[in-house]
Amino acid sequence: MLALLLLLLLISAVLGYINFSAVAAEERQLLVMSRQRTLLQKMVKEAVLATQDNLSTESRLRLSQTAEEFDKILEGFSEGSLENNIRRIYLNADLRTGVPVIDSEAQDDFEQLTAAWNLFYDDLEIIIAAEEIDSDVSAALEAVLAADGGLQEQLDRLIRTMQLDADEHYRTRISVQTGVLLTVASLILILLWQLLNAQIFVPFEQVQKLAATAYGVPFSEHDTVRRFEERLRAAAISKSLTAPLPAVPPKTMQPDLPETDTAKEAIPFSPPPSAEQPIELPDAVRL
User: Which residues pair with 93 in a beta bridge?
Assistant: First the structure.
């Protein structure tokens, strides 16, 4: 019973670990996508800073919404939570030099934002966009990449590193799960073996008392059925050889057969000879 309870607890632990590993793997993939998305949003925000005057109203609105989402993510990263209130960071860019002009009110926020960038993107610098840029969002991103060729390399390296980390995490999870499942299988085999042995062994007190009373065979709870039968058979043979022979019961009289008419005719009745009646002898024996 205890072994079965331990087995159930172990199975529950394994299922919980597998579920936790699956959730962790999904979170890992989400982290990969979120970092990739965050880097792309950084590129979008830099495109907004460098091309504010060259974008259409619709494109500027879309890029501004993306930049707002980017601020929210980085703010959550820097504070350790993604549920903080959004604090917009207003940056103005000088298109002649490409250097952002920071308002004094937003200096602290900008330093916090830069610290978040440096934490996740290996000290990436502010991107200086090209002077001529298309009004489309994708063209703006391409212009940002063209202005700094190292950004694409940085993006590729980040994605490749995260994929390698995810693959390593997956291999580790598979290895641990395989080991745990092998352990569970071994425990199941041990439990089955114990159950089979419980059927093979004969630890019954009644059999012990019967054997001790009838044949004087000491009983061990570790005796198997075959070994116990052999010991009982040997004890029975030994007892039969040393036991005295039983007395032969007296023969019983056979009951009289009923008389039949045939028997009466075949065997005529003749009275025994008397002393007064002489016995006639044959002529051959007469003197």
Answer: 100
pLDDT at 192: 75
Could you tell me the CA-to-CA distances from 174 to 17, 85, 101, 167 in Å, in that order? 11, 39, 51, 10
- Tell me the C-alpha distance between 110 and 120, whole Å: 16
3-state secondary structure 43-75: HHHHHHHHCHHHCCHHHHHHHHHHHHHHHHHHH
Highest mean pLDDT among 55-59, 139-143, 177-181: 177-181
What pLDDT score was predicted for residue 184? 77
Residue type, 23: V
Model pLDDT, residue 34? 53
Distance CA 24, CA 35 (A): 16
Nearest to 235 by CA among 257, 219, 255: 219
- Count of beta carbons in the 10 Å neighbourhood of residue 219: 19
Average pLDDT, the chain: 56
Give the pairing type, strands 100-102 and 91-93. antiparallel
Q: Which amino acid is at 82?
A: L
Number of other residues whose CB lies within 10 A of the CB of residue 67? 21
| C-beta of residue 169 within 8 angstroms of C-beta of residue 151 | no
Mean pLDDT for 48-76 is 56
Angle 42-44-47 (CA atoms, 0-180°, nearest 5)?
110
